C-alpha cells in the first residue's frame, strides 16, 4: 500500500532478494523496509494518509506471522522505517542514503513520483538494495541500466488508457474524431504522445492537440478551438487540480461531445467542480469489489486506514 501493489510486490521480491540479509541477522530480526512519503509539500494532498496505510499494512502482514523467508525456513515480521521526503527530490535522495547507511534497511519502497524517480534509484544500485517504485511512469527512468529497481506505476505511460481506447471500439455509434488537451507536464505529455498516435492507428482522426500550463486560469481561447473542431471525443490529459478551471469553463461554455475523458478523474476534482464532472469518464487502477490477488487484504487495509480510491487514486500503484 503506499500504493498497495508496490508493497505487495516488494514482499514477493523478498523471497528472492532478502534471504541473505535475513540470514545475516540470524533469522530472528524483522525484515526492514525503508520508504519515504510526501507528507508535506505539493504531493502531500495525494499521500497524506499513506503513513497510516503503511503501518496498517505491516500490522496485517504480521498478523499472519510476517513474510516467508526461504533461507530461514520460516516467516519473519515486517518493519517500516518511514520519513517525509517533503515532495523534494534532493531530500528524498538524502533520506534513502540515510536508510541505506544508518538504518540499514533490507529493502526500499518508493519513491512515489516521477520527479523523485530520476535521482533516487541510483542510491539503490549504489548500495545493492532492491527498490520497488510506485507511480514512476516515465519509461526513461527504467532505461538507464540500473539493476536494483522495479516499478508498479499507475500504469506506465504506454499502457495508460489502453482499456479506454479498447472500450471506444465497442460503443455505438463509434466515435470518429478526437481532440487532445494536455497539461504541460512530462507524464501527461507522454500520455498524449502515445495515445494520439494509437488513436490514429485505431481509426480516430485527431482534430487538435492543445497544451496548457498549470498556471492557466482563462481557457476561453483554447475552448474556442475545441468547440470549432466538434470532435466526438475530448481527451483531457491532466492532473486533477490543473484542469479545474478547464472543466468548469467547458461546462459554462456548453462544450458538447460524445465523451469528455479525463485521465485523472478524482475526488479532488469532483469536490472542486461539483456537478460539472457529471457525464465525464476517467480512470482508476482498481476499485473495491474487484477481486484478485491480495484484494481482500487491500480492502482491509484501505478500510482500516479510511482511504478511498476515488480520493487517493495513486494508492494501489505505489503503497
Quick synopsis:
39% of the residues lie in helices and 18% in strands. It is of the alpha/beta class and 319 residues long.
Q: What overall geometry do the principal axes of the alpha carbons give? A: elongated
CATH topology assignment of the largest domain: Rossmann fold
Q: How many distinct beta strands?
A: 12
**Uncertain spans:** 13-24
Looking at the overall shape, the CATH architecture of the largest domain is 3-Layer(aba) Sandwich
Derived from helix and strand composition plus strand pairing, the structural class reads alpha/beta
CATH class term of the largest domain = Alpha Beta
Straight-line N-to-C gap: 3 Å
Instruction: Give the neighbour order of strands across the main sheet.
Output: 4-1-5-6-7
- Report the CATH superfamily of the largest domain: Response regulator
Helix content: 25-40%
Sequence of secondary-structure elements: HHEHHEEEHEHHEEHEHEHEHEHEHH
Quote the average pLDDT: 88
How many domains, in number, for the residues? Answer: 2
Q: What is the number of helices?
A: 14
Strand content: 15-25%
Structural notes for this entry:
By secondary structure, the chain is of the alpha/beta class. It folds into 2 domains: 4-155 and 286-318, Rossmann fold (3-Layer(aba) Sandwich); 158-282, 3-Layer(aba) Sandwich (Rossmann fold), CATH 3.40.50.2300. The chain contains 14 helices and 12 strands. The protein has helices at residues 4-17, 19-24, 44-47, 50-63, 89-101, 114-117, 121-127, 162-168, 186-201, 220-229, 244-252, 267-273, 295-305, 315-318, and strands at residues 31-37, 67-69, 74-76, 78-84, 107-109, 131-133, 149-151, 177-183, 205-212, 233-237, 259-262, 280-282. The chain has a 5-stranded parallel beta sheet with strand order 4-1-5-6-7, with helices on both faces. α11 links the parallel β10 (233-237) and β11 (259-262). α4 (50-63) packs across α13. The protein is elongated, with a radius of gyration of 21 Å. The N and C termini lie close together (3 Å).
